[in-house]
Amino acid sequence: MLRAILPEADGLDRCFLKELRRGHDVLTSRALLGCTPTAAARLRSLPQFLEQVEYHGRRLAKLNVAPAGAAESLERFDSLLSRRIAGHFEPAREQLRLATLFVLNRAYYRVREAETQAFFGLYQAETEAAGLEDLLRRFVRILTQSFRARAGRLILQESRHDLPCPPPLYVQRGEPNERDIIDPSIRGRFASYWSYPLGQSGRIQLGFATAYPWLPRELTLLDAVAERCLEAIERTQLREEIMRLEALSRHAEREERHRIGRELHDEAGQSLLLLRLQLELMERDAPEPLRSSLQDARAVVEQMVIELRRIISALSPAVVERLGLKQALHQLAARGRKTHRVKVALRIGAIPDSVPREIEEAIYRVAQECLQNVAKHSKATKVNVFLRTADKRIRLSVRDNGSGFSVRAEGGKPGAFGLAGMRERATLLGGTLAVRSEPGKGTTVTLDLPGNSATVRRNGVAGNGEDPRTLD
After folding, report:
1. Which CATH superfamily is 322-460 part of?
2. For position 240, what pLDDT does the model report?
């Protein structure tokens, strides 16, 4: 059949192009012409022809030509062909036509599936990204893969609301507008570029190995992708700003706790110690009837001193600064055994010296809060405290055999340093806090934090120096 068609190929193509030009542009006409039996006759290999149909099928999908429209055009070509070859080779023509339509349908839905996967990837990137820099890196990777680009850049710029939004640009190497490719590391390296605005906040710029103007569907997809990326970036920036403000608030709170603790120690504490001393001196010289009352007053003052020291310790864990994390935890466990009469088993692994002070304070405060909760609420008789490092992270685990509680019910209750407060501190330091408990089955609190300051994120900036907004 293909040998019989070949002598008529040029004439058939001219007739078919005349019909196509009535309703299709040049790009669509060329793509449809590459899917006809005359194209198969020139190739003289069915696998090569079907591979060509797959390519043109993807282009037709990006030109917004549905499989039904392509099938209708190929039906018109089959009518022309039938007249030229006097209706011969009907079974072979039908088989080739069905194979062609199958490949066109498959190519169309592969393009649509790739678009869906691109959007799914963008949504997933936003949910999994650790911050703005990580989000940009993930977006660039998804966009370069989705549009089959060789390199990509996602560049954020300061918004200028007094200027109009820049237009989308298709740029070829050597053209004057190649200077609009912002990153000099890709400018001049590729045959063509796409530059698409993210509103007034930045641009998506992609580099291609060949001259590749975008097709209508790709331009529509770029518009939707840009809107999605911009919304995700704005939400991430807002979250990071909230986290930055929360970190500043926590820092101010910590400083205020230190200040209050110092004033209580220097003013109230010293005054109580002086009062205790005066009561002791008065007790020595007082007559017997008054001595018992003075002794009781001195005991009350001594108890106030003990309670004040506990409050100062709770306000500001200066013991961590003075003794270090390990000794501070040992002292905390000893106080729990003595004050609350609970068996506290403490096991501490090797802790590096490079652990930041805010990490150490968070570990101490969580352990302190857990032991206080054990004493006040759980009625536990035994508590196991484990502190260990693994994969550059530090994990604190506090497990008791108390009465337990419903985590969902208790999580929303207000408290100075309850579950919500512990989780917020863990999140601000780049970690997590998990609570497992059921009524009657005890409670386990697990704090997982980064073990070095390079891992702790500050204002959303990654610590490895890599430019996350670019990808080759």
Report:
1. Histidine kinase-like ATPase, C-terminal domain (3.30.565.10)
2. 84
Instruction: Note the pLDDT tens digit of each residue in 83-132.
Output: 888 778 888 889 999 999 999 999 999 999 999 999 999 999 988 888 88
Would you say 143 and 204 are in contact if contact means Cβ atoms under 8 Å apart? Answer: yes
Question: Start-end ranges of CATH 3.30.565.10 in the chain?
Answer: 322-460
CA distances for 113 relative to 58, 118, 120, 228, angstroms: 12, 9, 10, 18
Burial (Cβ within 10 Å: 0-12, 13-18, ≥19) of residue 174? exposed
pTM score:
0.63
| Distance of alpha carbon 446 from alpha carbon 440, whole angstroms | 19
Cα dist. 242→89, 347, 352, 377, 424 in Å?
72, 36, 31, 33, 12
The whole-number pLDDT of residue 458 equals 34
**Any idea which of 198-207, 228-237, 305-314 has the lowest mean pLDDT?**
305-314
**Residue 347 phi, psi (nearest 5):** -130, 125
Question: How many whole angstroms separate alpha carbon 117 and alpha carbon 115?
Answer: 5
Q: Please state, in angstroms and rounded to a whole number, the distance separating the CA atoms of residues 60 and 332.
A: 71
